[in-house]
## 1
Amino acid sequence: KAGVTQTPRYLIKTRGQQVTLSCSPISGHRSVSWYQQTPGQGLQFLFEYFSETQRNKGNFPGRFSGRQFSNSRSEMNVSTLELGDSALYLCASSKTGATEAFFGQGTRLTVV
Amino acid sequence: AQSVTQLDSQVPVFEEAPVELRCNYSSSVSVYLFWYVQYPNQGLQLLLKYLSGSTLVKGINGFEAEFNKSQTSFHLRKPSVHISDTAEYFCAVLGDNTNAGKSTFGDGTTLTVKP
């Protein structure tokens, strides 16, 4: 069974640009969550989607947004990138959001 | 609201010695508890989980953890560590359905196994 797939693995963007990250969950999983991981702040929850609906949202500015498609694949978008957005972005999928989550390898975003 | 405290940021240990990584949590509702491991430049891998039932749970790679409701703890243990166990370990809590898909993580414990 294929795991959670995140693309791309690495990204370098310039301040002010926007970026879109993609996440394909494990087959049959309908919940997809996104996290930002930085050395200073640790793992912080961005948002969670279930059946194309955002159910929970973390404490991030509106520049961070996401969506989920009917096949449960999810994307997150960050607009007007700032240097502080440099981080490892992790996607996790679970069957319902109320059980264990499985993580992808992450996308390492560097903003210069 | 829920929170997780990992009591040790770094744990150095010699190969074949036992290890315990400590985790305390706080929550106003029943929770599910997890331990994850992260190797450099990788995602998180699930080591073990407590959802219900027996308070002693066994995971992959010889790890186990004990859920203690009265002490709100979920400590991770391994009787004999290997060099390959060197990694960062995260304790996480998942609350009720109002927080579906929203795990709260501790700050992590770096386990360093020395030869």
## 2
Amino acid sequence: RKEVEQDPGPFNVPEGATVAFNCTYSNSASQSFFWYRQDCRKEPKLLMSVYSSGNEDGRFTAQLNRASQYISLLIRDSKLSDSATYLCVVNKDDKIIFGKGTRLHILP
Amino acid sequence: DAMVIQNPRYQVTQFGKPVTLSCSQTLNHNVMYWYQQKSSQAPKLLFHYYDKDFNNEADTPDNFQSRRPNTSFCFLDIRSPGLGDAAMYLCATGTGLILGNVLTFGAGSRLTVL
């Protein structure tokens, strides 16, 4: 089983729609969790951290379910500028592991 | 202002000709990472330093070496690049804190092997 697994997509979604991504991780001792965004041929950039209580940043909501070892990202009212690859990231100690990423295309 | 700077941004080398990629940071972070990312794949961790402590991933080939002479700088040496080593190499820094070890990436060095 891969350490961090994501549906690679692509997700083709009309502008204004809501889209959800899921991610599972294999190491139950993982300590912190993040979503990064990566644009084509650019470096990954932090989108948001993920907490057990769930957290929201504008149109973005992230959830963590430790019992199921599952992380989610919800994007509401999607914009054309949301088109990118979304990487699920899991941290244990100082080791950080990336998922393969989910590609999102927002359609006008 | 760029906080993690990688040089060169683009590197073309010949098969077998050694290459060194550099990374510098102004964040004073304890941890520096090197990732390899091929097209449509996840960034793959090659190794990382926590201060001067070197941590090599088990599946990182011996062809890849790293040096961290001080807190600010880290180098990736590819001793004999093969065609399969063509990729984007990403340097990142982190605080190393258990909760909230957020990475800051450099813009990457794209390696082409002829």
